[in-house]
Recover the amino acids of this structure.
């Protein structure tokens, strides 16, 4: 069991999730409601980007609290923050890419450009996820041992997001065989999976 640090309520009985962050929780709930709705977007791509952002946030937390244990924590913190911000932006960007493609097909204008974007956006997710997984492994190995679980979960989430992004690229390409973007995404996803697996107990 994790320490009381992870409790939803602090010693004063106040919620660690809602204090001064009701608006942020409302935004998260809004995103989940939109994903769950009957609207065509946001959907799996936006969900994938959100998972990458969450994974980066866990790595960011681990790095922030590992300054005393590891000299590389500051650099890892800065990079994890940048990846979180980038991935958060991809939540909306993926929705816009899909809707733009639908409109391009409808209007029969610039279909190729719109289609390419539906591949490029998830590829950026896979890139980010692979880098998050790499940072997570570094922090799990060198960072604050009290935050190791956060780093490990970050790696696992990043791996899942990378595999999800790879699947989306394959679906959006239609014929992925021989496509350089798919080949790159597959390489990055396999790397992320291997990194996450390296942190699992041998008997798991």
């Amino acid at each position: 069991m994790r320490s009381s640090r992870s409790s939803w309520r602090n010693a004063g009985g106040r919620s660690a999730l809602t204090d001064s962050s009701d608006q942020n929780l409302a935004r998260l709930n809004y995103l989940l409601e939109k994903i769950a709705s009957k609207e065509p977007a946001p959907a799996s791509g936006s969900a994938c980007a959100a998972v990458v952002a969450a994974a980066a946030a866990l790595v960011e937390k681990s790095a922030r609290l590992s300054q005393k244990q590891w000299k590389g924590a500051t650099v890892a913190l800065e990079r994890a923050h940048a990846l979180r911000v980038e991935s958060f932006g991809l939540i909306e960007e993926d929705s816009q890419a899909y809707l733009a493609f639908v409109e391009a097909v409808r209007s029969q204008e610039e279909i190729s450009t719109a289609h390419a974007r539906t591949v490029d956006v998830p590829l950026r997710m896979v890139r980010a996820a692979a880098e998050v997984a790499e940072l997570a492994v570094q922090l799990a190995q060198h960072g604050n041992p009290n935050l190791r679980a956060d780093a490990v979960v970050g790696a696992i989430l990043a791996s899942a997001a990378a595999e999800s992004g790879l699947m989306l690229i394959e679906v959006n390409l239609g014929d992925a065989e021989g496509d350089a973007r798919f080949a790159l995404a597959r390489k990055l996803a396999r790397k992320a999976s291997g990194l996450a697996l390296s942190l699992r107990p041998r008997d798991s």
DSSP finds six helices and no strands in the chain. The chain has one domain: 43-198. Residues 73-107 form the longest helix (35 residues). The domain at 43-198 is CATH 1.20.120.680 (Four Helix Bundle (Hemerythrin (Met), subunit A)).
